[in-house]
From TrEMBL:
Chain ranges for the short sequence motif 'HIGH' region as given in the UniProt record: 125-135
InterPro entries, A to Z: Arg-tRNA-ligase, Arg-tRNA-synth_N, Arg-tRNA-synth_N_sf, ArgRS_core, DALR_anticod-bd, Rossmann-like_a/b/a_fold, tRNAsynth_Ia_anticodon-bd
GO molecular function, one term: ATP binding
Record EC number: 6.1.1.19
GO cellular component, one term: cytoplasm
Subunit structure: Monomer.
The protein's name in its UniProt record: Arginine--tRNA ligase
């Protein structure tokens, strides 16, 4: 248990013993410098008493609580301030116990207790289209949430949910039919086994798709070809389905590599296409339940409610052409997840601009009784913008490929390394690898440190700075501790019990103590930025500690050195653990 929760328990007991609600005892970090912690429950308790018609002075409540806790061994001093704040300074004994627990296990107490099965739907890349800057945020945020929930002890399944079932497939098929009409996939008479080897590469797909969609833009006949191909595919055309399976396989291979380079890994590569077989039964079920109704030839589910403040258009199950839509595949995916996984919770990490889409399918799902609405959450996010305040584009206004974005970051990181004189003695390969890690850390941290829904401006120079709240600063902090520990090892220095004496040591112990709470809060609020704040605060606390408390110099007595080394080691372990959750890999040296 953390020191802060032990204090909360003690205060809770005191409030309860005095006839108040124990929840008033919650202890929080202090906003002012008077003491590390404070309890503001006296005012709340007086407020509650007033509601019952009792008159209590909050300062009297605070004094009674303080008197009750006078002999508590966790507390050094307890001061009453203002209207009834209780400022709490923990005792040396409490600090030593806490430090001991932390050095034994710097990442203790993270589990949530009640473990859930959670599906996280993120990534959401589309088959045949190269990954671009627009795919960054879902991947980075989704991956962080996945790792965060796992750290809490939940079973988490990350699903890439490929976009592979819309008009874009019809575009590809029809374009390929124009280019290579003699392929057996287009031979109506052929009904045998289609070859295992794909007739197209990823480069072919990346070329065919824009070719087709551009051609169809102002040519209705060309568009019709794509529409018909889409309809035929969805109606079960065997050759088209075989082609689609190739498109998917080729794309997934490329996507695995692309996401892999970002440090993002999925457990499932399911997509829209793989739930298509479930659609007829699902539609039947919705009809049978009286939820699906015809509307001008289309099949819809009405989802509006009396208290709706905004217009709530119906869910579109089938277009009047009979075509399956984005709503339909997402609903069928829920039917599939229910049957295959039966998760307690599904989190969708998708651009905020799709908020209405998710509200619609969540309502329809709840009406159908597949999931409760509180089991489905859309976690939207804002956009990464250029300096013009619009979603980031290349200089000529095109979409920036993710690959190119990462290269830009690596180059920016290389410049920073040169400027800072870091890695001057590395061989070129080692240096490039460090630059890659620094660039990636810069990009991810800059993204995750914002509250999810905020937009931010892409600024490689600011992101890669080694000073300030940046990924590179954090990597550097961790690498520095690694190097201290290496030197200590060379000197044969020993580790020993942590004795927090210097205020900077105390502050570092308290910062370490706050980890489980930061993890719990970040998970509960689906807010990786809370964890970013924690690791940044921890790195700063370490920096102050290292400035004020020399470790390896001759003058430091052995017991103190041993204590400080243990504190440094615990900090590194927690820092690396936290950075690992937000997806930052720490190099051995820098
Ligand atoms: N492929 C979609 C897009 O590009 C994102 C998919 C998000 N996930 C979902 N279950 N709808 O917009």
């Amino acid at each position: 248990m953390t020191l802060q929760s032990r204090l909360s328990d003690a205060f809770g007991e005191a409030f309860a013993a005095l006839g108040h609600d124990a929840t008033f005892g919650v202890v929080v970090e202090s906003s002012k410098g008077d003491a590390p912690y404070q309890c503001n429950g006296a005012m709340a308790a007086a407020g509650a008493a007033k509601k019952r018609g009792e008159k209590l002075n909050p300062r009297d409540v605070a004094s009674a609580v303080a008197a009750h806790l006078a002999d508590n061994p966790l507390i050094e001093t307890l001061e009453i301030a203002g209207p009834g704040f209780l400022n709490i300074t923990p005792s040396a004994q409490a600090l030593a116990e806490t430090a001991q627990a932390i050095s034994e296990d710097p990442i203790r107490g993270l589990s949530a207790g009640a473990e859930l099965t959670i599906v996280i739907d993120y990534g959401g890349a589309n088959v045949a289209k190269p990954m671009h800057v627009g795919h960054l945020r879902s991947a980075v945020i989704g991956e962080a949430l996945k790792r965060l929930m796992r750290a809490r002890g939940h079973t988490v399944i990350g699903d890439a949910h490929l976009g592979d079932w819309g008009l874009q497939m019809g575009h590809l098929i029809s374009e390929l039919a124009i280019e290579q009409p003699s392929l057996i996939y287009f031979d109506e008479a052929y009904d045998g086994n289609y070859p295992d080897i794909s007739p197209v590469t990823m480069d072919d797909l990346a070329r065919l798709y824009p070719q087709a969609s551009n051609a169809a833009k102002d040519d209705a006949d060309r568009m019709e070809l794509s529409r018909v191909a889409t309809a035929d595919l969805q109606a079960g055309h065997k050759g088209y389905r075989a082609l689609l399976d190739h498109f998917i396989a080729v794309s997934v291979e490329a996507l695995k590599e692309g996401y892999g380079r970002l440090g993002v890994e999925f457990d499932l590569w399911n997509g829209e296409a793989c739930v298509d077989p479930l659609i007829p039964d699902m539609v039947e079920e919705l009809r049978h339940a009286g939820l699906a109704e015809e509307d001008g030839g289309a099949l819809i589910v009405r989802i509006e409610r009396e208290d709706d403040k905004k217009e709530m258009p119906p869910v579109m199950l089938l277009a009047s052409s009979g075509a399956v839509l984005y709503h339909t595949t997402d609903l069928a995916t829920l039917v599939d997840r229910k049957a295959q996984i039966n998760p307690d919770l599904i989190l969708y990490v998708v651009d905020q601009r799709q908020a209405l889409h998710f509200e619609q399918i969540f309502r329809a799902t709840a009406k159908a009784g597949w999931f409760r609405e509180d089991q489905l959450e859309h976690l939207g996010f804002g956009t990464m913008n250029g300096t013009d305040g619009k979603p980031f584009k290349t200089r000529d206004g095109g979409v920036l490929r993710l690959e190119d974005l990462m290269e830009m970051m690596q180059t920016a990181a290389e410049t920073r390394l040169t400027e800072s004189g870091i890695g001057a003695d590395f061989d070129p390969e080692e240096r490039a690898e460090v630059a890659r890690l620094v660039g990636l850390a810069a990009l991810k941290f800059a993204d995750l440190q914002n509250a999810r829904l905020t937009n931010y401006v892409f600024d490689p120079e600011r992101f890669t700075a080694f000073e300030g709240k940046t990924g590179p600063y954090l990597l550097y902090a961790a690498v520095r501790i690694k190097s201290i520990l290496r030197k200590a090892d060379d000197m044969g220095a020993a580790f020993g019990p942590i004795i927090p004496e210097d205020p900077a040591e105390v502050a570092l112990v308290l910062a370490l103590d706050a980890y489980p709470k930061a993890i719990a809060l970040a998970a509960e609020k689906r807010a990786p930025h809370i964890l970013c704040d924690h690791v940044y605060g921890l790195a700063q606390a370490f920096s102050r500690f290292y400035t004020n408390c020399p470790i390896l110099v001759d003058e430091t007595p052995e017991v103190i050195r041993a204590s400080r080394l243990s504190l440094a080691k615990a900090t590194l372990e927690q820092l690396e653990h936290g950075l690992g959750i937000i997806g930052l890999d720490v190099p051995e040296k820098m």
